[in-house]
Design a protein that fits this description.
The complex is a heterodimer of chains A (about 260) and B (about 850).
Chain A (H helix, E strand, L loop, with lengths): L25 E4 L2 E6 L2 E5 L5 E3 L4 E4 L6 H7 L8 H16 L3 E4 L9 H4 L2 H12 L2 E5 L14 E3 L1 E4 L2 E4 L10 E3 L4 E7 L2 E10 L4 E2 L10 E2 L3 H4 L7 E5 L4 E4 L4 E2 L2
Chain B lengths: L11 H7 L6 H11 L4 E4 L6 H13 L15 E4 L3 H17 L6 E4 L5 H9 L4 E4 L1 H8 L4 H5 L4 E4 L2 H4 L3 H16 L4 E6 L5 H9 L40 E3 L7 E4 L17 H9 L4 E4 L3 H13 L7 E4 L5 H12 L5 E4 L14 E5 L5 H8 L11 E5 L3 H16 L12 H13 L5 H9 L9 H13 L13 E3 L6 E3 L2 H8 L10 E9 L17 E11 H5 L6 E4 L2 E9 L2 E6 L20 H12 L9 H13 L8 E8 L2 E6 L5 H17 L4 E6 L4 E5 L8 H4 L7 H9 L1 H13 L15 H18 L4 H12 L4 H11 L3 E5 L7 H8 L9 H16 L1
Parallel strand pairs in B: 1-6, 1-7, 2-4, 2-5, 3-4, 5-6, 8-13, 9-11, 9-12, 10-11, 12-13, 16-20, 21-25
Antiparallel strand pairs in B: 14-15, 16-17, 18-19, 19-20, 21-22, 22-24, 23-24
Helix pairs in contact in B: 2-3, 6-9, 9-16, 15-21, 16-18, 16-19, 16-26, 23-29, 26-27, 26-28
The chains are: A alpha/beta (about 260), B alpha/beta (about 850).
């Protein structure tokens, strides 16, 4: 009878995670978290954008604009408001921070046809944003060089002071790399439940940005894909409802 | 009987006679009615020869065709629809036996998800005489080209277990599909096979639909098939004679009244809990005296618990098995086979064995925990003894004091033949959207005609034309106020005929892959983990430290939300074993056996997935208040009620008692609506929000099937309760809560899948697992809520939430019921009725804590480490 209780082997223990000593230095400042990447002070904002105070540079990553219409094209009529939602969020940041430079760190559009599918209202809003500061597109894997047609500067890698900005994180990169692409999410448990949210992932030397787009899903920071970038494990700066909350590595769960 | 004998032609009469049987009156009645071209709703208890009654008329009509020889044309005569795939196979077998014994030469085939494509293709070109299938397969057939040709010879539709299908989303889709068949084969008759139900007329309406235009009353095939491109108006199955709907009901004589006992355990009856652990030894003794007992419980978690407990006392090593929906299919099939072969003595099971198939000679049904509703109880009892004239036997084992009352109430009600009725269902807009797309994939449709057809079905009888047009727009472009997807339409209108059709074959194919109303919760495979490298591959260097864990044997599936609540290292009961969670990899929950553990972490959904029926709740409230009806209760329960009367008050059936009292450092408010866990959970959320605004600093709440308790840091005795419990909480408070509710988001996700906005499986798309789809659906919900809160799918989700997991409809009825009838007692300490609720607090995770708090906990750890 296969249904009966069977003898059990010794239970496995979950793997230990690095302890708190490995935490990078950071400070909670209002709704944001401030930390140093190399010698540059950066702020992780609750909207999922990164702010470099010295150079008044605002970085957002993985906007995935026109993801809704990309799916509609294939017969899944997702709401057509994702581009507008992302641009409004960006407008809000621009009005608050008055940046000199905005960097869109790759995968600005969900696909290469995205810029052509934008409706007039969103196109106008984007044009307005781009006219207020220096606008830099960084090349992504979804959209390639497609955003170039919209104006602004175009780079595959951008250097801002000692920081290196590129879409795809490199394995064992030098300190100071800021990348996107992976859409990090953190799962934190407690009080008999778990919460999964977008997050920044950082070890104090490098940083991976959360996705900014309205429909962009995420990859758990415990996934192997992050192991090569953060060999010592990463701290998650989790996007809460209206502030950024750091979660140490040992509080993070895999999916 | 003799006068009716000619009804049965040769070889049927001989077949019955050769077996020494005579056809039952209701079986003959169905033959008579079929000959007059009439539809029928047959209400019969289990074992009354229901299936044969449904098919006998068709077999009689088909028998003469044999003379035409084996090369006679292929025409679909009878369509049989059952809610279970397994039931179609079972019925096919039971039907084929007499058909071949009588050498009728009738072609009988099944068509389910398991039918290979080659056979499907062949069936479409050469239909059998009788096709046995499921609602989903019918939807697929309708969404195929040449559907009209396939169905236009149809003479009869037999719908089995119609009472189980009608009040569901699958029932919505089926009702719409039947209306389509009514257009293509206007002369067909319908036969509904049902267990005893409270609202028979509701089922009649569902079966026949309304009559927008006079139905054809002729029998047999209509002489002129409709070849012109203006199809006839939708025609429900003929009722005949213009008589009242109730004329179509045929009742088999009820079987013997079941014998129901309530276990008055010698052991102390627990105040709270759902395990009936106290009664296990007595239940075991009962099983020992029985040939085969079905032990029904209400949830999978309870099934696991009960199975463990029974084996703990199983000194005789009786073959006791476990059967529930999460177990691996192979495992379930093994149990079913063992049952059929008479190798088992008891099976602990959930609603998976509620319906349909005979798996053995069950002679006792044991219901652990309260049955929650009379209809369900009667259905379950029917599983014992499928012999018609012998009474079924059942034993009810209440697991706590409130359940003693509930079991007694149910026992009384069954004796009186009283039943709780499901209220009639309003058809889901998501199902309507799916049907519209399905129609467009088959024969192009005219919107006016389709609307007429849709409102002829019972679930959509009240659908406005405006809503229908919005549903078309939802299918075509997503139905957004911002008309940005007009150029990506999934269905397009022919400029000449105005008919709608699928834009291209690929969207039609996409639709066919997404048919159906069953959207499973996100499930994870539970797999035993073991260390990799037991067989080290040559050339692969051994890594440092322990080898990584790899997924091994699959034990079954479990809801993702349950695993989400666990941390690695936690233990739980599954597949009859205590398992420890190691972690989750993609869609696998990796576990190891934890046999050393005595007390697993018990699943938090232990309370029961079926809410107490309104009908039964009402009877419990009356029983509480009428001492005369308490005589049969066990002394400890009577004593408990008496104490409540002394310490607080026992409310009248139409009143709701609210008690406030302090305990330790906290202050409590407990109310007793008796409206089931789901409605009371929603009540708990809303009351907590209100108390927050009143500055009472509520900390948490808990809902049982009978009561709802909320606690906080401030005394609650001075609250204006009439205002607190006012119906207006269903306005803004509900609205703002729904915006964040995870239940609402998953409800929305299901609607979006059914309506075709999100694919079940996108070929080659970036989202590889169901788990990521859920996450995206959350984001879609957030965006839609912000930008187009009145979107038709938001309405659909709200309607579902009202009836499903949030039970808003019932909560509304409760608040109206108790208006002006609140009784308040401000007590110095906990009352006897409140004690069971208080005891449950330690056991279940307290709901109501905010997600943000979880993140803050984690963040405070950082703050500590940094200071």
């Amino acid at each position: 009878m296969p249904l009966l209780s069977q003898p059990a082997p010794k239970p496995e223990r979950p793997r230990r995670k690095p302890d708190l000593r490995a935490l990078p230095p950071m400070a909670i400042a209002g709704d944001s978290v401030e930390m140093r990447l190399g010698d540059t002070l950066v702020s992780a904002l609750p909207d999922g954008a990164l702010w470099i105070t010295d150079s008044k540079t605002l970085i957002v990553s993985d906007l995935h604009l026109e993801k809704g219409s990309s799916f509609a094209l294939r017969g899944q009529m997702l709401p057509p408001y994702d581009t507008h939602a992302a641009l409004l969020k960006l407008t809000d940041l621009m009005l608050r921070l008055q940046p000199d430079i905005i960097v869109s760190l790759g995968d600005s559009f969900h696909d290469k046809g995205g810029p052509n599918r934008m409706d007039a209202r969103d196109r106008e809003l984007l044009r307005l944003l781009m006219s207020r500061c220096d606008w830099v597109w960084v090349e992504g894997n979804h959209d390639g060089r497609a955003p170039e047609t919209l104006g602004g500067a175009f780079h595959d890698v951008l250097h801002v002071g000692s920081l290196v900005l590129r879409h795809h994180p490199t394995d064992a990169a030098a300190p100071g790399e800021i990348a996107g692409h992976l859409h990090p999410c953190a799962k934190v448990s407690g009080r008999g439940r778990s919460v999964r949210r977008r997050c920044f992932a950082t070890d104090g030397a490098r940083l991976v940005m959360p996705a900014f787009g309205a429909f962009t899903g995420g990859l758990n920071v415990c996934d192997d894909a992050f192991a090569n970038i953060f060999p010592e494990g990463a701290t998650a700066l989790v996007l809460g409802k209206d502030r950024v909350l750091p979660a140490p590595n040992e509080r993070l769960l895999s999916d | 009987m003799d006068a009716r004998a000619p009804l049965l032609p040769s070889p049927f009469a001989e077949w019955f006679a050769a077996r020494g049987w005579s056809p039952r009156e209701h079986q003959l009645e169905l033959v008579r009615r079929a000959q007059a071209g009439l539809s029928t709703l047959l209400i019969a208890p289990t074992g009354a020869g229901k299936t044969l009654a449904g098919f006998l008329p068709s077999l009689i009509e088909l028998a003469p065709l044999k003379a035409e020889g084996p090369r006679r044309p292929h025409k679909l005569h009878t369509l049989y629809i059952s809610p279970l795939k397994a039931l179609t196979t079972d019925v096919a077998r039971n039907l084929s036996t007499p058909a071949s014994e009588m050498q009728l030469g009738v072609r009988i085939e099944t068509r389910t998800g398991d039918t290979p494509p080659s056979k499907r293709q062949r069936q479409r070109a050469h239909p059998p005489d009788i096709l046995l299938t499921t609602p989903e397969q019918l939807c697929l057939l309708i969404a195929s080209e040449h559907a009209r040709v396939f169905f236009e010879d149809l003479q009869a539709v037999v719908i089995d277990e119609i009472h189980a299908l009608a009040p569901t989303k699958r029932g919505d889709l089926l009702a719409l599909a039947l209306a389509r068949l009514g257009r293509w084969a206007p002369a067909h008759r319908r036969i509904g096979l049902s267990a005893t139900v409270a609202d028979e007329h509701g089922l009649v309406d569902w079966l026949l639909g309304s009559e927008p235009s006079p139905p054809s009353r002729g029998r047999g095939r209509s002489d002129a098939p409709h070849v012109d491109d203006r199809p006839p108006p939708p025609t429900p199955a003929p009722q005949g004679g213009g008589g009242e709907a109730r004329d179509i009901i045929v009742r088999a004589p009820p079987g013997a009244t079941p014998i129901i006992d309530v276990l008055d355990s010698d052991a102390r009856i627990p105040w709270s809990g759902h395990t009936a652990r106290h009664a296990i030894p007595e239940i075991y003794e009962t099983i020992k005296r029985t040939k085969l007992a079905l032990v029904f419980v209400n949830t999978r978690a309870q099934a696991e618990m009960t199975f463990q407990e029974l084996w703990r006392v199983n000194e005789d090593n009786l073959p006791i098995a476990l059967h529930h929906g999460s177990l691996d299919v192979g495992q379930r099939r093994k149990v079913e086979a063992a049952m059929a072969e008479g190798k088992l003595r008891a099976v602990v099971c959930t609603s998976t064995l509620d319906l349909g198939i005979d798996w053995g000679d069950v002679d006792l049904v044991i219901q652990i925990g309260a049955p929650k509703g009379c209809a369900r109880l009667v259905q379950r009892i029917g599983r014992a003894n499928h012999r018609y004239n012998e009474p079924s036997r059942a034993l009810l084992a209440p697991s706590n004091r409130f359940e003693v009352l509930e079991c007694r109430s149910a026992q009384e009600a069954v004796k009186e033949g009283a039943l709780d009725g499901e209220s009639r269902r309003i058809g889901g807009l998501d199902c309507l959207a799916q049907h519209i797309m399905g129609c467009a994939c088959g024969e192009p449709f005219d919107a006016d005609q389709l609307y007429e057809e849709v409102i002829s079905t019972a679930p959509y009888a009240d659908l406005s034309r405006a809503q229908f047009d919005r549903a078309i727009d939802l299918v075509a472009t997503g139905g957004y106020a911002l008309r940005s997807y007009d150029r990506y339409r999934r269905i397009v209108q022919d400029p000449h005929t105005n008919r709608w059709r699928a834009r291209n074959p690929s969207v039609a194919q996409q639709h066919r892959m997404n048919v159906g109303a069953i959207v499973e919760s996100e499930m994870l495979d539970v797999r035993l983990a073991h260390r990799a490298g037991v067989r080290q591959r040559p050339g692969v260097p051994k890594s440092e430290g322990p080898a990584p864990l790899v997924a091994g044997r699959r034990l079954g599936q479990i809801e993702e939300y349950f695993i989400e609540g666990l941390a690695p290292g936690d233990t739980f009961l599954f597949a009859g074993e205590i398992l420890r969670l190691i972690g989750v990899r993609e869609t696998d929950a990796l576990v190891v056996r934890a046999g050393d553990q005595q007390n697993p972490k018990i699943p938090s959904y232990a309370g029961g997935k079926f809410p107490l029926s309104t009908f039964l709740a009402d009877r419990v409230r009356h029983m509480l208040h009428e001492p005369a009806r308490q005589k049969s209760l066990p002394p400890q329960v009577r004593e408990w009620i008496k104490m409540q009367k002394r310490r607080s008050v026992v409310p009248a059936p139409d009143e709701m008692l609210i008690e406030t009292f302090p305990r330790a450092t906290k202050h409590y408010l407990v109310c007793y609506p008796f409206e089931g866990r789901l409605a009371q959970q929603t009540l708990g959320v809303l009351i907590t929000r209100r108390l927050e605004r009143l500055g009472k600093h509520p900390i948490g709440f808990l809902a049982s099937e009978y009561a709802m308790a909320v606690w906080g840091l401030e005394p609650m005795g001075d609250i204006d309760l009439a205002q607190l419990f006012d119906e207006d909480m269903l306005g803004d408070d509900l609205e703002s809560w729904l915006g964040e509710s995870t239940l609402m988001k998953s409800t929305f996700a299901k609607c979006a899948v059914i309506a075709g906005m999100i694919d079940r499986n996108v070929p080659g798309a970036e989202r590889k697992t169901g788990r990521q789809v859920t996450f995206s659906a959350d984001l879609i919900y957030d965006v839609l809520k912000q930008y187009e809160p009145d979107h038709i799918l938001m309405q659909a989700a709200f309607q579902d939430a009202g009836e499903g997991y949030l039970d808003i409809k019932r909560l509304g009825a409760l608040l109206r019921r108790v208006k002006g009838k609140l009784i308040h007692r401000d007590l110095p300490h906990v009352s006897p009725f409140a004690a069971p609720v208080m005891l449950e607090m330690g056991k279940v995770g307290v709901r109501g804590g905010a997600d943000e708090a979880v993140l803050e906990d984690a963040a405070s750890l950082i703050a500590e480490a940094m200071s």
